[in-house]
Design goal:
The complex is a heterodimer of chains A (750) and B (156). Chain A is an alpha+beta fold and 750 residues long. Chain A contains 18 helices and 30 strands. Helix content of chain B is 38%, strand content 15%. The chains are: A alpha+beta (750), B alpha+beta (156).
């Protein structure tokens, strides 16, 4: 065992800086900024203790050492989306920090200090665009005030540049030289400070490499699963392959007799798949030994009613429900749909379907926990929602939340999988049984593929009514989805305003639900990753039936409509309503980029797709062909995106768009999770085949700036590429893909 | 049973079953966690190390089979000119998103360019197709390898 210790650094107390005098500026959740020096002997205002969850909902955190090193806390979990680099860029911009002297540390989980800390929903950019800049501006104002006092000059005569305050005569002081004085300055209210004009940005808009990338290329231990603590042991967790099963009996003797096994014990679940299901923990000095010994466990499971469930059974039931024409409930309705169909010149009808999908981030689920002898719990958690994980674990163990400390580790991908913290609960339950011993739970890839919270499969029966002038006048969708029971979160839920809801005069969305025990969760661009395929494919059918192309139909549908009003969104932020002008702008841009309408190479064709999700607008065009075996080949993808006024870090932005597009192509061509006997049939990368390098097309991206605040890019570029590909295949062959993944047999050359 | 293995030029005694994969010897017996666990069945390449200079999946190399082979891992990648050049190219191209697979990508790319300093585009694709990047940073991985191939390793 190595005794190398790896832990997320504590904000403002890194070993390098702890013996220096430091300034700590932190925003109170209550809206004001409090000030504290990190060294107790010079502490003035002590630790901020703002009320939880108040309106401002933020705590920014800047520490300046005398040598002018500026330490900025990255508050959100880094999952590969680049947030640990990007949020500090916002602070550094308004602080006028010299980026080369900035170091970034990862925050621990602390709602009171930092406000919401999560990696999901592409929320971080819109939620933090203003507050993080205000945090930087507040610290800057205090540094300027300190300099003004020292020189006896008015604040207005001073400017800042690259971590220095400079006066009219050209004399200057570094932030480091001013830090202690600045700590004694009054804290300005953030809303009283002018933020920079965009033309003065020097950090926002600059391509900056990932802050931890140098560590990654050297193989340094920075991921959750790299956590090592003195005396740490490893755990593997055996659970029922059939969802919803309960443990009846377990004989652990043979497993305990295996080499290296120190213990094995039954864990009783709490009935919640998102927390703790029944299982057996196997403990060893080496994870491979623990995992291998699972093969010697004799466990009997009661699979109850769920063992009869299967993907084919769901498909059969869904098709019957759609054929019945009787939906359980109507959840969106405009005009008179039945009349529109009765008087239509042409009616189109089609059934669409898509499968369950797994997330499979490269770093398998894992978490490290230590139950201290005093009964408090410390965790090192690769979680997209560490605050939710902390609260859930505390509740499950009956601990005060203040007795659970959660360090946020870098994650080897998430894609929504780590929004659900079942692995945190598992290791907490294990650690509780072995106080004083740190334990790291690791899942095998098989555990990961077969124990996910899946993108739900879904079915849609669509009808469209076209009038004598070729106008789309009626639209009807009967959506068949799942009900996990107990009012649980349904990540497949279809919003009543999904496009083209407000743009067709007579429209009805209805749904029916099937019971399932298959756990469901949000996968990158949840619901949109499926609905874009369904809606944009069917609208392409409408376009073809009315002798126009899809970009033209989209522009016609939104013509004359004005932007919808803002709504209250997540975390109290304002969520802009759908804006048809932005749809039109990206559509026209994509059409121009791809030279849509001009001839393409023999055997190739173009297809178009548009989608609005997570406040981002993307129009994408795919150039595709087919191999002899009917395998779709994607040659080029042109993407035009509107994600607001600024691309904060062009490196991260391009990387997200490229990755989303390839992710979507993989989903379209080859990904599906199938349920058989109540369990998942697939188990690892041989039968759940992620895209590989040879599948990568040329990707051309342009951002269309708009006057909206910037929004996140983790998700919105994914959904439209799927229908763009299937629409291209239709243009090429006249065959319509109505079920994912694409059936190669449909396109195999005879 | 005790084995002696040579990792990055240094000998280590390991007391573990001979069928234990080298991956888990590195990670849990020796505390060298730069080599990553991705699938355990040789399908993803995250655990790629060099065995006598050849790229191998350490999840599929057993402890007992190592013998006196020279094993090198990501922790020692900077000791070779090709490895150093690729590390720098990875940063210059801002290759990664989550970064979890990149140790394996770098080890595989280093083995490729050491053998074949100027691979054709299709040779890069073919050599790298065993390494999955779930974030799909493939365009950038390809560019970074091509850049080192073009510019050589002399100036790193």
């Amino acid at each position: 065992m190595s005794d190398v210790m790896t832990a997320a650094p504590m904000p403002g107390t890194s070993s390098q800086l702890s013996r220096r005098m430091m300034l700590k500026v932190s925003a109170l959740a209550g809206g004001g900024f409090a000030l504290a020096a990190s060294m107790p002997m010079i502490a003035r205002a002590a630790t901020p203790a703002g009320p939880e969850g108040t309106a401002a909902g933020l705590n920014a955190f800047v520490t300046i050492a005398p040598d002018n090193t500026i330490t900025i806390v990255g508050k959100n979990p880094e999952v590969g989306q680049g947030i640990k680099t990007m949020l500090p860029m916002l602070i550094a911009e308004e602080l006028d920090a010299d980026w080369d002297q900035v170091r970034i540390v990862q925050a621990d989980t602390d709602m009171a200090l930092y406000g919401p800390q999560l990696a999901g929903g592409s929320f971080a950019t819109p939620m933090n665009w203003i507050p993080m800049r205000q945090a930087g501006a507040t610290a800057r104002a205090m540094l300027v005030a300190a300099a003004a006092q020292r020189w006896g000059v008015p604040v207005g005569s001073l400017r800042t540049e690259k971590s220095r305050v400079i006066d009219g005569s050209g004399r200057s002081l570094t932030f480091g030289e001013l830090a202690t004085d600045a700590a004694a300055m009054p804290v300005p209210a953030p809303e009283t400070l002018m933020l920079k004009d965009a033309k003065d940005f020097t950090i926002i808009g600059r391509p900056i490499g990932g802050i931890d990338s140098p560590k990654v290329v050297r193989g340094e231990p920075i991921f959750g699963v790299d956590t090592q603590l003195p005396g740490m042991v490893y755990a593997a967790y055996e659970r029922a392959p059939v969802f919803g099963a309960k443990l009846m009996s377990a004989n652990l003797d043979a497993a305990k007799a295996e080499p290296g096994i120190s213990d094995a014990f039954v864990i009783e679940g709490n009935g919640r798949a998102d927390q703790l299901v029944d299982g057996v923990a196997v403990i060893a000095s080496n994870w491979w030994l623990a995992n291998r010994a699972r093969g010697k466990l004799a466990v009997e499971w009661d699979t109850g009613e769920w063992a009869s469930h299967s993907s084919s059974g769901y498909d059969e039931t869904a098709r019957k429900l759609m054929a019945s024409g009787q939906a359980e409930e109507v959840f969106a309705s405009n005009g008179d749909v039945d009349a529109a169909f009765a008087s239509a010149a042409k009616v189109l009808e089609a059934e669409y379907a898509y499968p369950f999908l797994a997330h499979v981030p490269m770093e398998p689920m894992n978490c490290t926990a230590l139950m201290h002898e005093d009964g408090s719990l410390e965790m090192w958690a690769p979680s997209q929602t560490p605050q939710g994980g902390l609260a859930g674990v505390a509740e499950m163990l009956g601990l005060e939340p203040s007795r659970v400390k959660v360090h946020i580790t870098r994650m080897g991908g998430g894609f929504g999988r780590r929004l659900t913290n079942d692995y945190m609960h598992q290791v907490a339950a294990i650690a509780q049984k072995m106080p004083g011993t740190p334990v790291q739970l690791i899942w095998s890839r098989e555990d990961d593929v077969r124990t996910d919270f899946y993108r739900p499969a879904g079915w849609h029966k669509l009808r469209a009514a076209v009038d004598a002038e070729g106008k789309l006048v009626g639209f009807d969708d009967h959506f068949v989805t799942f009900d996990a029971g107990g009012g649980s979160f349904n990540p497949a839920a279809m919003a009543p305003d999904i496009f083209p809801a407000k743009f067709v005069p007579n429209l009805r969305f209805a749904q029916s639900k099937m019971k399932t025990a298959v756990p469901m969760g949000a996968l990158r661009a949840p619901s949109s990753n499926a609905l874009a395929f369904v809606m944009q494919s069917f609208l392409d059918e409408v376009a073809v039936a009315t002798d126009k192309d899809l970009p033209t139909l989209m522009l016609e549908l939104v013509e004359g409509f004005e932007p919808e009003p803002d709504e209250q969104g997540f975390g109290g932020m304002s969520s802009p309503g759908f804006n048809p002008h932005r749809l039109a702008a990206v559509t026209k841009k994509a059409v121009e980029m791809a030279k849509w309408g001009e001839p393409v190479a023999d055997g190739h064709a173009l297809g178009f797709g548009f989608y609005w999700s997570h406040m981002g607008y993307f129009a994408e065009i795919v150039e595709a062909s087919l191999s002899e075996a009917g395998q779709p080949l994607v040659h080029n993808v042109w993407a035009a995106g509107d994600v607001g006024s600024h691309i904060i870090n062009p490196f991260g932005a391009m990387n997200q768009v490229e990755g989303s597009i390839i992710d979507g192509i993989g989903q379209a061509i080859q990904l599906a999770v199938q349920i058989e006997g109540g369990a998942v049939k697939q188990s690892n990368f041989h039968d759940y085949q992620l895209p590989r390098m040879p599948m990568t097309p040329q990707i051309h991206v342009e951002f269309v700036p708009s006057d909206n605040a910037p929004t996140g890019l983790g998700e919105p570029a994914l959904p439209p590429v799927i229908p763009a590909l299937t629409n291209a295949l239709f243009a090429l062959t006249g065959k319509r893909v109505r079920s994912l993944p694409i059936d190669k047999a449909l396109f195999a050359k005879a | 049973m005790a084995y002696t293995v040579t990792i990055n030029g240094k000998q280590h005694d390991v007391d573990a079953p001979g069928e234990m994969p080298l991956l888990w010897v590195l990670r849990n017996e020796l505390g060298m966690v730069g080599t990553k666990f991705g699938c355990g069945i040789g399908m993803c390449g995250a655990c790629t190390v060099h065995v006598n200079g050849e790229a191998r999946r350490s999840c599929a190399v057993t402890l007992s089979s190592v013998g006196d082979a020279q094993i090198s891992t990501i922790e020692a990648l900077a000791e070779t000119p090709v490895g150093r050049a690729l590390q720098q190219a990875w940063l210059d191209e801002d290759v990664m998103q989550c970064g979890y697979c990149q140790a394996g990508q770098l080890m595989n790319a280093t083995a490729l360019l050491t053998k074949n300093p100027q691979p054709a585009e299709t040779e890069i694709e073919s050599a790298m197709q065993g390494n999955i990047c779930r974030c799909a940073c493939y365009t950038r991985i390809h560019k970074a390898i091509a850049a080192v191939s073009k510019e050589g390793v002399a100036n790193v």
